[in-house]
Amino acid sequence: MVRKVKDGGKDESQDDVEAKPLLDVPTRHTAGFVDRGTEKPQWKIKSVVTVALTLLTSSQAILIVWSKRAGKYEYSVTTANFLVEALKCALSLAALWRIWGTEGVTDNNKLFASLDEITVCTVPAALYLVKNLLQYYIFAYVDAPSYQILKNFNIVSTGVLYRIILKRKLSEVQWAAFILLCAGCTTAQLNSSSDRVLQTPLQGWMMAIVMALLSGFAGVYTEAIMKKRPSRNINVQNFWLYVFGMIFNVIAIFVQDFDAVMNKGFFFGYSLITTLMILNHALSGIAVSFVMKYADNIVKVYSTSVAMLLTAIVSVFLFSFHLSLAFFLGSTVVSVAVYLHSVGKPRR
Amino acid sequence: MVRKVKDGGKDESQDDVEAKPLLDVPTRHTAGFVDRGTEKPQWKIKSVVTVALTLLTSSQAILIVWSKRAGKYEYSVTTANFLVEALKCALSLAALWRIWGTEGVTDNNKLFASLDEITVCTVPAALYLVKNLLQYYIFAYVDAPSYQILKNFNIVSTGVLYRIILKRKLSEVQWAAFILLCAGCTTAQLNSSSDRVLQTPLQGWMMAIVMALLSGFAGVYTEAIMKKRPSRNINVQNFWLYVFGMIFNVIAIFVQDFDAVMNKGFFFGYSLITTLMILNHALSGIAVSFVMKYADNIVKVYSTSVAMLLTAIVSVFLFSFHLSLAFFLGSTVVSVAVYLHSVGKPRR
């Protein structure tokens, strides 16, 4: 078996999986692969994946607007989600195939993993499944515009769980920036029916908070998995995450859309735009994985927030959207938050 | 002529008026009276005057809401403004009277000043006069809710002129905080008609910007006057500022309300609440002077912004106001701005 040895020491790619509990992730500046003089390429890949995620997320929202204009969703969302996971799985395998061809099979890129490494991959998929099922019930308490507003709790929950679980430090200014990001995104989405959110009953608030915690926890847990073994090839990690994504989406199809799929068929209502959306979701999903491995959840949240603003601006040209004063104010606050996050780095 | 030389002990209180041009104000940390081991009382008086200004400004807004509820303004606003200036003038004289009794008449508290010292006091009063006259014309281009929004330009203009004219430095984080303060105050004021501001014609924007510059310049110029000669008794400086305030308000009465005052009389429509408002305006005006002398324009802007939020919160209890989601978001942004301003102090 080929083992790469760095710095003359013994291979640490294996023992960092087995010796420590999963959530005891190496922190960014002590993690092996950052400090080994690879700071610059690291910075480069971080920027590339962040920009890719931002662009893919904004085009995602534009595709959604486009498909809504073209008519209602005719296809079943659960089958589309399953196909997204399947496509991501296939793309990861294809990437691995190429890598095996050039580099050969090593301990870091071999597909088969320890039971521990595979088991943890079920967690994010299961969390997302629970969250998606909850989503069907929350609308009993919360109307759609209010739900848009409440989804911004995700930003806060991600920040808090990132701090608590991954034990990463944000500086005071970065915390302030994070609160601003949340307030700015919400402000940018304000419209005449937003105030209804204040009439949301307690159950609605609780469910929204639980959902935010579930999705925040899934994100943070995925980051823990990706960072746990930095030298592990990302496509292997993705493969296992997406396999469980597929499995859990099969469960969702059975729970939610069994009758429709049985009566109308799996691909009922699919169109060109549905195909484009599945392709886009798959690519954004992979971009998220890369951001988790090479950057972090905080970067992901900033990236998707900026994407939301980009979407609105592009929509002005594509769909002659009207931008509101609230949008300009929210965008200003989000921009200042991005700036403060970057100038506010904790001092080492 | 008495001259103080720094570190050598002679009086410098006079030459700082005569030797340098007005706007070459001593910066805060090199100004004589801060560095003379009086940092602590300085910090104390700064807090007291800031809190006083915040409370007076918020009660001012509450009195305005109260008077609107009681009926329309029946009295002429120009006569009320004149009385405010007259009352401030009287209060300054009364304070001086006491000081002369205890300390005797000194060079710093004598009422008669050099022609230079008196001339500069005409500038803020004249600027406010022009601004108040413009206010009558801007409504040809801008509707009332839009004007409320555009008035937030004052925050930006004060910050920019403070930097340019007084040459005070704000740190990067403090500049970011200042932009947030402006965005947050505007967000907190958003309502269903706010978006109309986007239809404001160019002339409306220009006039709003000119008015913001006039009021920003008046504020910054007042600070320059107050800080130019730190050892000068503040009541003398106030006296001369308010004398010209009275004179320029007489002009405003002639220009705007001559007929009404002639036909109905000077005190037509005055009520208990009018009297309370005049008293409140006079006290807040004096508080502004103290903030200018012992703190600065930036503190004043933060103080009045926080006052706006306090007013809204108090109005919930007094007038069963409804707070909007926009108000909560704006308040969050303003609070973060206040926090960032205080943690973001430039390093010395």
UniProtKB/TrEMBL annotation, chains A, B:
One of its GO terms (molecular function) is pyrimidine nucleotide-sugar transmembrane transporter activity. It is a multi-pass membrane protein. It comes from the Eukaryota. Pfam families: Nuc_sug_transp. GO terms for cellular component: Golgi membrane. The chain crosses the membrane at residues 173-190, 202-226, 238-255, 267-292, 299-319, 325-343. This is Uncharacterized protein.
